[in-house]
Design a protein that fits this description.
The chain is α+β, with helices and mostly antiparallel strands and 219 residues long. The chain has three helices and 13 strands, in the order αααβββββββββββββ. It has a domain at 75-217: Calycin beta-barrel core domain (Lipocalin), CATH 2.40.128.
């Protein structure tokens, strides 16, 4: 009987020791790994990449495309000779597709520029145009007065309050039995480049696309 009791006690001790060993060898549970954020994707919460919500986006914004350089409004921007190419349709105010050069020259110490244009239409004939551009620094306006190839005289007050563009609209002018107006947007691209988008309204009707021109400054 003593032998059986000792055996049972030894067996119980062995089972207890085995249970301790098994528990000791069981690895502790660890949190599931967090899937890394995709490049450029801000983390949903602090801890995903160690940044609070929105912080990654702010960092990317600082590293994004640098702001577009802005040109100083005024006469000095235009002074000089510019080559251009115009693509558009013929109209009472436009000779259609053409190329040429426009030269802006300051009148003494005034706030007025002389404009002289010489070029050639795609159809072949040469043409000339003239006019003035008057700058008002206080109101940030540039008023263009032009005699275009068709003989019409256009007066276009332009708003240049934003360095990025001049927006102008001509006063109504008679062309035969029609009354026309031209709306333009001068997009100031850089110190040596700007573009013009033109729209035409006839007899008070809706504006329709007339043409586009690209200008590059001559050295």
């Amino acid at each position: 009987m003593r032998f059986i009791t000792v055996a049972l006690v030894s067996l119980a001790g062995l089972l207890f020791a085995s249970g301790v060993i098994v528990r000791a060898q069981t690895p502790a549970q660890t949190p599931a790994p967090t899937e890394p954020a995709a490049p450029g994707e801000p983390g949903a919460a602090r801890g995903r990449r160690g940044l609070p919500p929105g912080a990654a986006a702010a960092v990317l914004g600082r590293r994004g495309t640098p702001p577009q350089p802005q040109q100083q409004q005024g006469l000095d921007y235009f002074i000089g000779s510019w080559r251009f190419e115009y693509i558009g349709r013929e109209s009472p105010v436009s000779a259609g597709p053409r190329t040429g050069t426009v030269t802006f020259t300051r009148k003494g110490a005034s706030n007025v520029l002389d404009m002289r244009t010489e070029g050639q239409t795609d159809a072949g004939p040469a043409y000339k145009e003239s006019g003035t551009a008057e700058w008002n620094d206080e109101q940030k306006t540039m008023t263009f007065r032009e005699r275009v190839a068709g003989g019409l005289e256009l007066v276009s007050p332009g708003n240049w309050s934003s360095p990025l563009a001049i927006r102008s609209e001509t006063q109504p002018v008679k062309a035969g039995n029609q009354t026309v107006r031209v709306r333009r947007v001068y997009s100031i691209i850089s110190a040596v480049a700007f573009t013009i988008a033109e729209e035409l309204s006839i007899n008070g009707g809706p504006y329709q696309r007339l043409g586009n021109a690209e200008f590059g400054k001559n050295p």
